[in-house]
Amino acid sequence: MDNIGPDNWPPNCSYEAARAHFVTALVDLGIEREEARREAELALQHVTKMAAHELLLNAKAVLSVAHAGTLAEILEQRRRRVPLQYVLGETYFCGLKFAVGPGVLIPRADTETLVVAAGDYIKSKSPVSLLEVGAGSGAIVISLLKQFPQLVATAFEISPQAAHFCRINAICHGVAERLTLIEEDYLEGLAKLGSSKHFDLILSNPPYVPLAVASTLAPEVIAHEPRLALVGGGPDGMGFYRNFAKHLPSLEATAHAALIVEFGDGQADAVKELFELAGWGELQLWSDLGGRPRVLTSSGWQW
Ligand SMILES: C[S@@+](CC[C@H](N)C(=O)[O-])C[C@H]1O[C@@H](n2cnc3c(N)ncnc32)[C@H](O)[C@@H]1O
């Protein structure tokens, strides 16, 4: 691990050598080579402000001392297992850039499945009044607002830090006027809305990691990402699904809404059964890019 301190950065190194050095340093930390390569690419692009093809064209050019210093600082933070996205202050989701940092969950590529399922629904039922529970960085709701210019949405987010990032991202993507962000527990907030709003579609990627699984997560996740966003679903991670199934049909704002939720790998049967038993109709599972069921859609509670 000593090889990644600022003093050990190779002198007069080329972009190519910098990339190799970055990858080796991350692999030494126990990060998989493929992920290390991806991080090296993102870090180089971020620091040099060059696109992938420019970096390749300039592979033999010498990195400036300032850029080498910044890359060394990034590696220093990665040594402390701070997620790269927090170090860079940004990540990509559905092809869009989102600001992230401590206090907000880093949106995952798997969650794009939920956006695809929601897009399908919105295309078939337009116009749609949308609600997201647990907006985090706003990755889901903002991606949909960008995709569907007629769409308006409301989102609940209980964490002030996460809501702050959501607000910034909504402004940066030019959708702030179409997004009502409510910084409150969603059940309390929905009860307060009474009949002043009616939602057609509810989306949520709630906290679903079972407590027993939390300790097995990568240090980047468990030591740095917000606990509430990971294990806020209670001991078995199912708390949000139970509350959705039970309470959403009896709240005026959500009584007739369809629902799309993400869940963890291995939770598909339990989540589907829970909504089935509670009387939700037209349940359908959607798989992520790896072919694992990760999203459940329902037309709503059957009266
Ligand atoms: C798993 S994260 C998902 C964030 C984002 N939607 C995404 O997919 O990247 C769940 C989010 O729900 C928020 N949350 C947890 N409990 C909540 C509650 N009772 N009401 C509103 N938001 C809540 C957390 O703060 C967190 O931002």
Q: Would you mind describing this structure in some detail?
A:
The chain contains 14 helices and 11 strands. The chain is of the alpha/beta class and 303 residues long. The chain folds into 2 domains: 2-80, Helicase, Ruva Protein, domain 3 (Orthogonal Bundle); 92-301, 3-Layer(aba) Sandwich (Rossmann fold). The strands form 3 sheets. It has a 7-stranded mixed β-sheet, with helices on both faces. Strands 1-2 form a two-stranded antiparallel sheet. Strands 8-11 form a two-stranded antiparallel sheet. Helix 7 links the parallel strand 3 and strand 4. Helix 1 packs across helix 2 (33-48) and helix 6 runs parallel beside helix 7 (139-147). The protein is elongated.
Secondary structure layout plus pairing:
Elements: H1 15-28, H2 33-48, H3 52-57, H4 65-79, H5 84-88, E1 90-93, E2 96-99, H6 112-125, E3 129-133, H7 139-147, E4 152-156, H8 160-172, E5 179-182, H9 186-193, E6 201-204, H10 211-214, H11 219-222, H12 227-231, H13 239-247, E7 258-262, H14 268-277, E8 280-281, E9 284-287, E10 293-298, E11 300-301
Parallel strand pairs: 3-4, 3-6, 4-5, 6-7
Antiparallel strand pairs: 1-2, 7-10, 8-11, 9-10
Helix pairs in contact: 1-2, 1-4, 2-4, 6-7
The structure holds S-adenosylmethionine.
Concise summary:
The protein is an alpha/beta fold and 303 residues long.
Kindly estimate the percentage of residues that lie in beta strands according to DSSP: 5-15%
- The third-level CATH topology of the largest domain is Rossmann fold
Series of secondary-structure elements, N-terminal to C-terminal = HHHHHEEHEHEHEHEHHHHEHEEEE
Oligomer: single chain
CATH class designation of the largest domain:
Alpha Beta
The CATH homologous superfamily of the largest domain is called Vaccinia Virus protein VP39
Sheet with the most strands: spatial strand order = 5-4-3-6-7-10-9
What would the principal axes of the Cα set say about the shape?
A: elongated
- Which segments are poorly predicted (pLDDT under 50) over 5 or more consecutive residues? 1-5
User: What's the CATH architecture of the largest domain?
Assistant: 3-Layer(aba) Sandwich
Task: Give the terminus-to-terminus CA distance.
Answer: 61 Å
Q: Mean of the pLDDT scores?
A: 94
Class from helix and strand fractions: alpha/beta
What is the makeup of the main sheet? 7 strands, mixed
Number of domains: 2
Instruction: Spell out which ligands are present.
Output: S-adenosylmethionine
